[in-house]
Amino acid sequence: MQKDKRKKLYKKIALAVILALAAYIFLSGYIPPLIRKKAADSPTFNASISSERAAVIDDNTDALLYRLRLIESAKEEICLSTYSYYDDESGNDVACALYAAADRGVKVKILIDGFNENKILRAAAFKALAAHENAEIKIYNPVRLFTFYRSNFRMHDKYLTSDSSAYILGGRNVGDLFLGDYRTKQNIDRDVLVCREEENDGKSDSVREVKEYFSSVWRLSESKVFSSKSMKKTSTASDALRRRYTALKKSYPIISVPIDPTTETMKTRGITLIHGEVTATAKRPVLWQTLLSAVRQNVTENGAGDLLIQTPYAICDGKMYDGISALTDSGVTVRLITNSIRSGANPWGCADYLNERTAILKTGAAITEIGGSRSAHVKTMLSGENLCFIGSFNLDMRSVYLNTETVLAIDCNEMNASLREQAAAQTESGKTTRRTAGGEYVFSYGENYVFKDAPLLKRATYAALRVVLPLFRHLL
After folding, report:
1. Is the N end or the C end of the chain the one with fewer CB atoms within 10 Å?
2. What is d(CA 216, CA 210) in angstroms, rounded to the nearest whole number?
3. What is the per-residue pLDDT across 27-56, written as a single tens digit (0 to 9) for each?
């Protein structure tokens, strides 16, 4: 009898522990992101006057090859920061190039977001890199039980620096979905290659800004050292990386060709790095407010009366809507280009868009939904004829309040015009919706627009998500 009572008591204790643990995990993940900090002051945008050269990289194979060329050209230090690093073909291409750089004495530093730590824990290439004497790998904010209250604060930055001379920054993670031509279906994405000019010696420029930003995240207590737990087994992986790099250079001889800024990039009037707060806590909306400030400033200085926003999805709160409304109320024409429900790859973003489309249109912004077989992952803002904002920033609450994000503000009419041409071509297959002052909706269609509804299963999924999403919007 006593034994049965003890068993029941143990079961009750076990159940209580499980319930307490479940409550802790749920509340730790749910409540901290609800915090909405205000910026202490309205941030101002200080444009760089130090000219640099830049090129937009839209092709995924070019994006891989330019990364490999930057790594190959490095003589002192390489810094790589990415939200996600995949153990796949292009991921191993980058890894073998980094290993080769470490072999020739280059210091290699890699930052990877902790939410994706499991993707590299079993990766032989990363174990080999971690074991190399010239390589260091850190994990930003690893997901751990006792610090689960920080689990929703992620590092979303994506860039690669080569010495103090050049870097690539944009929206691409390291993996086959974004780099190379290893997959038949990839995301449409965008990076920027930036090269420093000799005349900038002694001046502040974006190359230095990016390296300083990397150091600020690297030094955080939330950035933990990643080390291989099986150092004895890395020799085989190291040999495989060396063989892979030898074969890769034979397949792509251009890897060994230094980048020529004169022929491969265009002159800019200045490039400025914009970023938000970096600690794994609730963040003030510094980056978002700086972007708005830059647009307003451009309107004042150059009469730039329009803003084009390309974003994979739009997930805004009231303050973000207010920011867009303030622009349209002041006479700025705002248009969003985003994925249609059919082409969107983020089910949460698509379902939320169905709930919030009217709210977006009420800000005075027009929305162009683009179709196609590939999902657009491009994150770009174009203000007037000169300013281009390109980086990792999505028009969503996560980018504003939860994640670290990086954006380049590039002052260049030639780049702006080229990107507008691409956007115009993209919208030829899209549908644009505007809301008049009287509340009526006006629709226009591109020349190549063809209506294609989302598959039945997708529509059913979105219908179900639309019901529950309002409770979890702050986590999207």
Report:
1. N
2. 10
3. 999 999 998 888 767 777 887 777 899 999
Do the beta carbons of residue 179 and residue 60 sit within 8 Å? yes
Dist. CA 421–CA 427, nearest whole Å: 10
End-to-end Cα, the chain, rounded Å: 52
- Residue whose structure tokens are 């990039």: 265
The number of beta carbons lying within 10 Å of the beta carbon of residue 184 is 6
Q: Which residue do the tokens 């993996």 mark?
A: 175
CB-based burial label for 167 (10 Å; 0-12, 13-18, 19+): buried
Structure tokens at 9: 């008591």
Q: What is the pLDDT of residues 325-374, one digit of tens each?
A: 999 999 999 999 999 888 888 889 999 999 999 999 999 999 999 987 78
197, 202, 206, 207: CA torsion to nearest 10: 70
Which of 465, 396, 359, 325 has its CA nearest to residue 33?
396
Least Cα distance to 171 among 473, 347, 376, 423 occurs for 376
Contacts of 322 (CB under 8 A, 6+ apart): none
Q: Which residues contact 405 (CB under 8 A, 6 or more apart)?
A: 156, 157, 275, 276, 287, 391, 392, 393, 399
Cβ–Cβ < 8 Å for 411, 268: yes
Cβ atoms within 10 A of the Cβ of 250, count?
9
**What's the pLDDT band for 400 if we cut at 50, 70, 90?**
very high
Mean pLDDT of the residues in the chain: 92
Contact 195, 261 (CB under 8 A): yes
Evaluate whether 157 touches 404 at the Cβ level (below 8 Å).
Answer: yes
Reduce the DSSP state of residue 17 to 3 states and report it.
helix
